[in-house]
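Quick note —
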Amino acid sequence: MHDERREFQRLLLDPPIPATLGATPVTILEIGVLGARVLHGVPLDAEHDELHFAWNDADVAMKCSVVRAGESQSGLRFLAAIGDGGDRLRVMLAELVVRALDTRRGGGGVKASSAIDGDKTVRGHDAAFLCYRLENGTWHRRRVFLPEQPASGFTVARSEDSEEIQHLCRVYAASDEEGRRLIRLFAELSVSNALEIPPRA
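Predicted structure written out below.
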């Protein structure tokens, strides 16, 4: 398995979120659907443990393995969501990404992109994902079997609302590199939901 499957982005948390890993208090610095980076005051001695934190008064719980352990910071890989933890994590990430994109707006005069080209030549009616690629100011859409994120654009689950996708395309085209990374992270939430990542325990 390649390192943390980096096609899934992580979101830097500002402010960080207090949590517990087993009985150890930790602070979540960065989080995504596959894992997190945490700050801790004492070395972590368990290889596997449960991460618990609260979001909007709901408990989010994940079974984790500790990867890249350090003296004060460690990486966590999510092995399974406990209860509704996976859904709650996606809701949290969606809210935080939307908030981050809203605070980044305001660079007036950015031109919206042109309409999406349906890319009618592509086969694959059973493909579960849609890839939107931005090339020379034009969007190209095609169905894909693998939910890999393109270098310029994003991939979502096929079930996503087309109006929301049109909005994502407009925001993506008008964004800088960090804004585009946030859009990809947002798109990945639908992919992770379709693939049930992290799986339910």
